[in-house]
Amino acid sequence: MRGRGGAAITGAMAQRAAAGGKAPPGDTAGKLVAAAAREFNQHGFDGTDSNKIARRAGFAPQTFYRWFRDKTAIFVAVYRAWEEEEARVIGTLLAERAPMAKLVDAVIAHHRAYRQFRRSLRQLALENEVVRQARTEFRRRQIEQTRRWAGPEARPPAEIAALVLQMERLCDAIAEGELAELGVDEKTARGALIDLLRQVRR
Fold it and tell me: Residues 6 or more apart from 110 whose CB is under 8 A from it?
């Protein structure tokens, strides 16, 4: 665990934060990340501050800065938590040899559960270099994880990158109701995601 920068978050803490659960007694950073996840997801990045996050975690405001440099640092920590929770869910489904439809449903549900957080993510990635870099690193890990899942039949990394970006955007669009506004039912959108996932392999 690393304080202040918020760059190193343990897997267990990440899962608790993404799920909005409680950290164990004494896990100050974990409690702050879990509180920040709830704050960002309810109010967005601009709708909260470090004082509110600290108070929601049950601490005095100055406690925040003993662990995180600023609000951006803890936003990135929450993003990593979101990523690890998604990876855990997908890993479990893959181990169970779940059908692609179930994988797609799990990813959509994860995007829906963090809709407000992801709105902030998309906006900040345009304005904040730290968040933009965090998103780039996440996508690189996601491309590599997808390549490993696809195995020997995996498409080249550049092609997987294009597919991953399409899937990410489509999941956000479904979560935001953008396709419904166009008269496209969710079953059709889910089918499109399944097709993209199948294309990862040659």
Answer: 82, 85, 86, 89
Show contacts of 140-149: CB within 8 Å, 24+ apart. 141/83, 142/83, 145/87, 146/200, 149/94, 149/200
Query: Structure pTM?
Result: 0.85
> pLDDT by residue (tens digit) across 27-71?
899 999 999 999 999 999 999 999 999 999 999 999 999 999 999
Question: What's the pLDDT tens digit per position in 81-110?
Answer: 999 999 999 999 999 999 999 999 999 999
Count of all residues that appear for the chain in the document: 202
Secondary structure class of 60 (helix, strand, coil)? coil
Taking the C-alpha atoms of residue 36 and residue 32, their distance in angstroms, rounded to an integer, is 6
Query: Helix axis angle, 157-176 relative to 100-113, nearest 10°?
Result: 60
Q: Kindly tell me the burial class for residue 75, based on how many C-beta atoms sit within 10 Å of its own C-beta (0-12, 13-18, 19 or more).
A: buried
Q: Can you tell me whether residue 201 is helix, strand or coil?
A: strand
Distant-in-sequence, close-in-space partners of 154: CB < 8 Å, separation ≥ 6 = 146, 147, 148, 160, 200, 201, 202
Domains and CATH numbers, the chain: 11-71 (1.10.10.60), 79-198 (1.10.357)
The H or E element spanning position 150 is helix 129-150
Distance CA 34, CA 101 (A): 29
